[in-house]
Amino acid sequence: MTEQAACGVTGIWNPSENLPPRVKKLRDEYFSFYDRDYFRNEVRAYSTGTEWDSVYSIYVWTILPELFPFFTAFSDSLLASAEIVEQPKDYWSKPLAVRRAEFFGQVISERLPVKILDGELIVGSYFNTALSKNHTKREGRILKRCVTRWLDEARMIHETGIGNCGAVPGHLIPNYKKVVQRGLTGIVDEIEEELAVRPPKSKRDNLHAMRICLEAVPGLTERYAVEAERLASATDDANRRAELLDIARICRKVPWDAPETFHEALQALWFTHMLVMAAESYPGPGLSHGRIDQYLEHLYAKDIREGRITRDQAKELLMCYWIRHNYAYDFQGRIGSNQGINSGFGQLVTLSGCGPDGEDLTNDLTWLILEVIEEMNLLEPKPNIRIHKNTPPELLERICEMLARAQGAPFLLNFDEASIRGLKWQGLPEDQLWDYAPVGCLENTLQGNDRSGTVDVNLNVAKAVELVFNNGRDELTGRRLGPRTGEPESFKTFEAFYSALNKQLDAIVDRIIEAAGEADGMRAAFEPTPYLSTLVDGCIKNGVDITSGGAEYNFITVEGIGFATLVDSVVAVKSLVFDQKKISMHELALALKDNFEGHEKTRMLLMNRAPKYGTDSDEADKLARELSEHWTKRTFGRVSKKTGRRFRGGYLSWNYWISYGPLTAATPDGRLRGQFLSNGIGPVNGMDKKGPTANIRSVGKVGLETAPNGASHTMSISPSLLRDPEHKEKLAALIRAYGEQGGTALQINMLDVDTLKKARDNPQEYSNLLVRVTGYNAYFVNLGREIQEEIIARESGVL
Amino acid sequence: MEATIFNVQRFSTEDGPGIRTTVFFKGCPLRCAWCHNPEGISPRPELMWYDTHCIAARDCLAACPESALELTADGMNIDRDKCTACGTCAEECPAAALDIIGVTWTLDKLFDEIVRDVSFYENSGGGITLSGGEVLLQHDFASALIHKCKQNKLHVAVDTTGFASPGIFDNVTGPADLVLLDLKTMDDAASREFTGVSLDLILENARRLGQSGKPVWVRTPVVPGATDSPDNIEAVSRFIVANLPNCERYDLLPFSNLCISKYERLDMPFRFRKTELPAQESMDELKSLAESCGVKNVVVQGLTVRNA
């Protein structure tokens, strides 16, 4: 029997066979969702027990519109299952931030269960919470009224296909570096300093609340120490006993005191990190580590130098640390899912990148972590590698090797020069820009001082096309969403059409920003998070909670969806209606209304006879740049009224480019209603007909600095491009050249079609097949059929 | 200045070092029976019809000034005696199901396309490759293009059959940085049978190229029943060792049948339509054989069948 073997065929991407036995056991244990009855990091609800209490914030979850029908059920069932943490009478007279802090402190130091799994070196198991909002009856009533009213608008925005928005937790980089350097005690010192100057009451209240949160942490870590000692005395294994006693020692030290070894640092980081998730009652999405290879390197190097640890031991510790992050999604393990719910959400680690003078900062720890990523093959934490003009060739070579061996992309690549240009454009201080890092998937922010809010607003920019053809109305519902710009036949010139289109674009930008601002304002008023506030610079100094704009830098990102769909539609109108005059505006409008039924010829003309974004067409790319600048600059001109957070643009479509397909009418690029919109900053699916260099150049020409949060660009490369060292070098060169063109973030998928088809048809045999979809990893067999087909189609087009 | 070109392939990774743009010149004096670019053989533009794109809009039928088209239940009949490849039908087709293969490019327009990827060439040690068809058939344009590329410090490779008068061969390859030379067979009878031309001119040019000192990559398509015998590969190898000291690399290119549909679209017969891909093992054996003759850097490039 023979089979045609395209070069570079990859197998299912399994973990390395050389994992240390301990790590293999812990990794397998994580994946044993159905057998692991002794421990699951389920959401644990804690309530004050008042009849008006709430443990679920709807405005947190409205960016997952598929949850709309379930909000009431989630809210009620979580509350019904909640453990009551009763409060004394004087509790209710305290400021909300203090109430939130005391409650958080009680839960973590007294209630949150403690569990150490056999063999673990980094501990901290239970952290998924649904914490009481700690509202008084009055607060509860006001919030309920506000949320109900706001939810109507949020639902309307979603159901008419404009997009979605919320006040989303996570999605920032806390100042973990400071925890490594000074410990929580160092942060308490900062709070004391601010309190010493006798600030006004509101500031004092916030500072008190922050201190309460930090001072509660040893209450939890002490319980881990006690548990470690209990297990130590119960085991016959002398090695494990020694490990457990060391764990107990470390738990009594960090994160309260600054860690002094690599092991202590990882434990300090894990406790600090898991408590952010507990405090925000939000399981990890976008809660990112920043440049971990930079701020941990000195401790790693010191331990190695002083013979305290071997490289392999450090690697094993990192692997234990890696596994912990996956428990953020433990509660989804048995559910399976659709449309990528069962996917990694992006506890991002950033590796490599440039220093203040453009020098490369790759170090020994960078290399070690790359090994951990490759050998573990886990969803989380998600790596993002910063590339710049001085990236060493060895690192690029390593990246290409990893791509060659991987199925799916093992990491995202972020490009420093273009990213930094964007951060500069939005006015961040130039001396800090080199030290930026992405959160979530690829959203560029500063580290430790930037409440970046990167996926709070998701705007379907292609909707503007539908509105301009329907005189400002949603085609499906007839609702008015934008101004009356006239019937399409009234546009006698392209300029008239274009001006009307931009007015519709403005209308949806304004509307969604207004709604997002309200969500942001509600959270600021009703849901302070003093624990997180201690970890983001500016909040202590200003004495303002992070939810109220206390951080040094405060942004809310509006992520554009369907950008290339918008561009190609406008280009097609210009080219075929006004320049070539091959289609009349009347015919086009009719064809769109009929969803191209009976207008196949018109549709074909639109698809085949107009320039397309993604082919290095200067005509299309010029319009792309104009359109991008138009909506992103308008966005940047707006701030959230209650918190002062500034809105800024970005291009990250998550899975919305699929879900908003049915809510967007047929578009003049030839797309039918229901077909996907374009993804991120990339061209419309299948339209990059001139290959990757043309695709990359089109993206580069957009001028992405006005979308400073970063732009997701996914490209699929035929595996044959990685079949030998010669071709790996060509890919490395392509990546290097990418950085010169202007794109900010690239995800390279390396999949072969046969494997994907087999996985689609035999899901049980491919349950661990990892792919990356729009910047997050997912198990292929758990993806919705639509996304599966999409990935297969995308791959087929390339091979 | 103009040329007839049937493809400008960006991000080309198989025609020389680095990332390249390969320009395929239309027209070839050889008639290789295994040719995988049959659309490059005729020097004239040709019409192709893609059944998968056609939506039976029939605009083409009315548009054709020669009445050369007929859409039947079995597909489009193109009367190639009548068709002048004027392109009117292709222009009218909304679905891009008709395409004129072979477009006239001016030097300036072609150069504008080429320089778009300079950053990719620079980072990869790539450049441009002139291929075909046979580029030497349009040697004036080729020389001008190479001159312009060299003025702009771009790396240029010329991919040729070697079948051209010595003066033309030297003129075009002289200013290039690299020559990709096809040596398909060392047997003159086989050459006449499978490529339609005698070897004399090709080998004469090859020998002179061997004295030029210019970097050369030799390429042999390994076609079952035509060029894949160990004797042939050994003969090519010995020729390289004896005459081409400047040969930096020897590519063995396994026969591919991915071109079948192109033959169908051009209404051309394909002698190798049933031929299977060479086995990886036999490619590896040929590689060892070439190496044992003293050829350096022998590379197998392409799809093979692996015996499982």
Description:
The complex is a heterodimer of chains A (799) and B (308). Chain A has 799 residues and is of the alpha/beta class. Helix content of chain A is 47%, strand content 9%. In chain A, the strands form 5 sheets. In chain A, strands 5, 11, 12, 13 and 14 form a 5-stranded mixed β-sheet that branches. In chain A, strands 6-7-8-16-15 form a 5-stranded mixed β-sheet. In chain A, strands 3-2-4 form a 3-stranded parallel β-sheet. In chain A, strand 7 (382-387), helix 14 (393-405) and strand 8 form a beta-alpha-beta unit. In chain A, helix 9 (262-280) runs parallel beside helix 12 (311-326) and helix 20 crosses helix 23. Residues 1-13 and 336-343 of chain A have low confidence and may be disordered. By secondary structure, chain B is α/β, with parallel strands linked by helices. Chain B folds into 2 domains: 2-42 and 104-300, TIM Barrel; 46-101, Alpha-Beta Plaits (2-Layer Sandwich). In chain B, 32% of the residues lie in helices and 25% in strands. Chain B has helices at 59-63, 88-92, 107-115, 118-124, 139-151, 166-173, 188-195, 200-210, 230-243, 260-265, 280-292, and strands spanning 2-12, 20-25, 46-49, 69-72, 75-78, 98-101, 103-106, 127-132, 155-160, 178-182, 216-222, 247-254, 298-300, 304-307. In chain B, the strands form 3 sheets. Chain B has a 9-stranded mixed β-sheet. The termini of chain B are far apart. The interface between A and B is medium-sized, with 31 and 30 residues. Strand 1 (2-5) of chain A pairs antiparallel with strand 14 (304-307) of chain B.
